[in-house]
Amino acid sequence: MTSKDRTKYNLVMEYSGNSNGSYDAVVIGSGVGGSACGAILAAHGFKVLILEKNPRIGGSCSYYEKDGFKIDIGTHMFIRGNKGPIGVCTRRLGMGTPIEFRRTRDIAWVRGFNVDVRLPASLLRLPFFLLHVYLQARFPVTAIPRILQMLYRMLTMTPAEIEQWDRRTVDEFILSYTRDPYIHSLFGLLLGLYFVLPPWSASAGESIWNLQSFIKDYNLGYPRGGAVAVPQTILNGARSHGATVLTNTAVQKILVENGAAVGVAVPGGIIRSPIVVSTTSLEDTIRLAGKEHFPLPYRQQVQDIKGSLIAVQAKIGLKKKVTGAGCVCGVYPRQVPRENLTRENMLTNFVLLQSGRIPQFTPIYCPIPTNFDSSLAPPGRQLLTACAIAPTTDVTLQDPPEAWIEKMLAALYELIPGVKENVLFLDTFTVQDLADWIGKSSGAAITTAQTPDQVGAKRPGHLTPIKGLYVCGDNAGARGVGTELACQSGMDCADLIHRQRRQYPIGDS
Ligand SMILES: Cc1cc2nc3c(=O)[nH]c(=O)nc-3n(C[C@H](O)[C@H](O)[C@H](O)COP(=O)(O)OP(=O)(O)OC[C@H]3O[C@@H](n4cnc5c(N)ncnc54)[C@H](O)[C@@H]3O)c2cc1C
Question: What predicted TM-score, i.e. pTM, was given to this entire model?
Answer without folding.
Answer: 0.94
